[in-house]
Amino acid sequence: MSAAFETSPSPAPTLQARNVRKSFASGRIESTVLHDLTLDVRGGELTLIAGPSGCGKSTLLAILSGLQPADGGSVRALGHELSGLSLNELEHFRLQHTGFVFQGFNLFPALSALEQVELPLTYMGLGKGTARQRAIESLEEVGLGPRMQLRPAELSGGEKQRVAIARALAKRPELLFADEPTSALDAANGQIVIDILHRIARNHGTTVLCVSHDPRLVGHADRVLAMEDGRILSDHVPSVSPVIASEAKEPSA
Amino acid sequence: MVALARKTLVHEWRRFLPAILAVGFASLLQLLQAALVLGIFGSASVYITGSSGDLWAGYPGTQSVNLGRPISEDVAMRLRMDPDVTRVEPFRWVDADWRGPRDTGGVSVFVSGIDTSPDAMMFSKALAPDLRARLNEPGAVIVDKADLDSLGVNIGDTAAINGQRVRVVGVGSGLRALGGVNIVASLDTARVLDIDPEDAGMMTYFVAKLRDPSKAKMIAGRLNGSDAFGPYTVWTSKDFARQSQLYWMLDTGAGAGVLFLAGIVFLVGAVITSQTLIAAVIGSIREYATLNALGVGRGALRKVIMEQAFWVGALGIVCSIVIGALLLVIARNRSVPMELHPLTAAVCLAVSMALAIVSGLATLRSLRSADPASLLR
């Protein structure tokens, strides 16, 4: 189904979902959240999954990113079949290949911005110098170079979310997942964040999959999937050219 | 490596303070309890530990030094016959009743009749030679200065022991005994005070000095061979002291009490510490979940928690050492019997560290709620 919506010649999909099903039981009632969902996501693009709350978009993100197993169907990420992997193998896959940005910034209050970004890198087995270097580069890329020694309490909401993005970006992931990254931010900061995510997809060839019900984001995505009741209703390229939009509102940082 | 555990501990010290205090108090309680018990029951063997004899000969089967029975003076001969024994000294123990000048009622006292020569072994560590020489005066006694109040006397006062008139000629320190007040007198004075006809011509103990104290165990074994000089047993001073302390500890039930209390302290400390650590983990659960989403394994997160538990334990122990040392100094200045050997202290501190580690292990369960999927809401 996804092939019908392809708009430009593009490389093989980095994320593939085939007949993914997921349901949750609450008491005796079982509610199906995803109905045999099939989807391809490509690298170098910012793909937005939009839809009302409760439509299953967060669950889809959790399954595609290897945070949660599907009840049925298959998920292939970067050529790896995720459905058969153990908890440890999934952790290893996420460590090597994925980055996450959540609605809450989830930063450790005790660490400076630089340390927040460095922390996961050290667990990847990078040397101290390399980790420090990458962390600095990522913070500079999100425009926080001058503020990298500050703790979360000294940063604004938008800056905290940019630290969270730098933390994901410094891992140099092929897959970057963002869940409602702008919901907790005002218009200006939301704009900055979505522009950064878009730029990451363009400059690094990263697969950026973003879930949001924020209508402001629609115009900035390369591709928008509209979801409702566990199904994808439409798959289209938004009317406003995201390139022009993002260049027009590029943050000065 | 970013020192997440330590930085969090420093930054959120208020959050961790209850755990540090819990470990610190538990550690302090264990230390003080051990010091107090060792100090109190150590005074059961003050006759042995305050003296420089290497061997003690007494009635067979004597369980504690205060339970001695008379033995024949011939035993002294047997000891002197051994080529390794350089000196033998009698020690008369008299269980007596004290009547002081002030209205203190009857006080149960133990009179220690000792050799008054300057190089004598009995209480050589507690009595200076000039003080010891004052005992040569008939009826002269020396008491510990901490016992003056309970005896109702001052230096120079007269009192009665078993109806005989005695005079306090001086005070010493390190003479306090367990179960009664220790009163030091000369052998002659003690003989006069001993009104039990059974004790005539008998002594309670003989203390011997050896040419080579390191051979004490072997020589004691050799001396225990025969009964030709009447019934007696020879102990090394170390064994006899330990035996006396153990007798008191078990006889009074204090040993079991100490272990019971240590268990309670451990339990309470562990509950407070683990609850505090759990609260700290829950407080950062979203951050831990984010790290897990980014692929940092659960094992690595557990290590962070255990590291925090370790630092909490270490800080608590440092607190307890500082406060404990201070209290020990104060106790010593006030003649409170407290004694702490490095090994005992090490065991107490190890138990406190174990408390922190056990609390850390109990905390690991709460990491299960660090489910990254729960962040996607």
Walk me through this protein's architecture.
The complex is a heterodimer of chains A (253) and B (377). Chain A has one domain (8-248): Rossmann fold (3-Layer(aba) Sandwich). Chain A has 7 helices and 10 strands. Chain A has helices at residues 57-64, 87-97, 113-123, 128-141, 157-169, 187-204, 242-248; strands at residues 15-26, 29-41, 46-50, 72-77, 80-81, 98-101, 175-179, 207-212, 223-228, 231-236. In chain A, the strands form 2 sheets. Chain A has a 6-stranded mixed β-sheet. Chain A has a 4-stranded antiparallel β-sheet with strand order 2-1-4-5, with helices on one face. The longest helix of chain A is centred in the C-terminal third of the chain and has 18 residues, at 187-204. Chain A is globular and about 50 Å long. In chain A, helix 3 crosses helix 4 (128-141). Chain A is an alpha/beta fold. Chain B folds into 2 domains: 4-43 and 253-375, no CATH class; 50-236 and 247-251, no CATH class. In chain B, 50% of the residues lie in helices and 18% in strands. Chain B is built from 13 helices and 11 strands. Chain B has helices at 4-11, 13-42, 46-49, 74-81, 129-133, 148-151, 187-193, 216-223, 237-251, 254-283, 285-293, 298-333, 342-364, and strands at 55-58, 71-72, 85-99, 106-114, 140-144, 158-161, 164-172, 181-186, 202-203, 205-210, 233-236. In chain B, strands 3-4-8-5-7-6 form a 6-stranded mixed β-barrel. The longest helix of chain B is centred in the last third of the chain and has 36 residues, at 298-333. Classes of the chains: A alpha/beta (253), B alpha+beta (377). Chain A binds chain B through residues 58-59, 61-62, 65, 67-68, 87-88, 91-96, 98-100, 102-104, 106-111, 115, 118-120, 122-124, 128, 151, 167-168, 171, 179, 211, and chain B through 1-2, 4, 7-8, 10-12, 284, 286-287, 289-298, 300, 372-373, 375-377. Chain A: It comes from Dyella flava. Chain A: One of its GO terms (molecular function) is ATP binding. Chain A: This is ABC transporter ATP-binding protein. Chain A: Keywords: ATP-binding, Nucleotide-binding, Transport.
